[in-house]
Amino acid sequence: MIPNLVVPLIVLDRLGSSDAAYYYVSYQLASLLYQTVFAVEQSFLAEGSHTGTVTRAFVVRSVRILLMLCVPGFIVMVLLAHWMLLLFGAKYAGNAVSCLIALSTAVIPIAANNWLLTVLRLANRLKAIVISNVCYAVVICGLAWFLAPHGLGATALSWPIGVSVGSVVAGIAVVNVIRRQSGSA
């Protein structure tokens, strides 16, 4: 939650109130995509917790569902970004398209990250989850601060980059979990 709270403050402080408004609306629109990821992840977690086992078919199905929902949603968001922002006014459409596209780009790494974190939750690897989330938050907030002087679109790129870093860290932990499970089987 830290990036959700800190990045808007960075935008406000470093870019001003107009850009903060553009960021807020762009983030809210992109979060519509993110909610799909969170819903699939919660279903994956509930089903995995209920059965107590995570089979290959179960994993493949959850990845397939994520991709079927996220990729078309991302494409629609990118293609309609200008018109969606136009609903909030011409200034939003003129100033926030790059921000919305950058934030929408984060949906794929967010899907990967949430999927990986769910695997770690099911494997009861709390330490790996915490480390991944700390990396995610530090990179997003740090990049937002560093990229802010380059404009709103550049600042928004902190999300896909930061979430990708968190995904790599979580992915390494998942690979270690799989290796341990394969070694003990």
Question: How does this model look, in words?
Answer:
- The chain has one domain.
- The radius of gyration is 18 Å and the shape is globular.
- It has 185 residues and is mainly alpha-helical.
Percent helix, as a range, is over 70%
Characterize the biggest β-sheet.
none
CA distance, first residue to last residue? 37 Å
Mean pLDDT: 90
As a percent range, the share of strand residues is: under 5%
- Please tally the β strands and state the result: 0
Listing every helix as H and every strand as E from the N terminus to the C terminus, the arrangement reads: HHHHHHHHH
Query: What is the radius of gyration?
Result: 18 Å
Q: Helix count, per DSSP?
A: 9
Report low-confidence residues grouped into runs of 5 or more: none
Give the count of structural domains. 1
Structural class: mainly alpha
The coarse silhouette is globular
Q: Which terms summarize this structure?
A:
9 helices; mainly alpha; single chain
Write the layout of secondary structure elements.
Blueprint: H1 2-15, H2 17-51, H3 56-86, H4 90-95, H5 97-105, H6 107-122, H7 126-147, H8 152-156, H9 158-184
Task: Describe what is shown at a glance.
The protein has nine helices and no strands. The protein is globular and about 60 Å long. The chain has 185 residues and is an all-alpha fold.
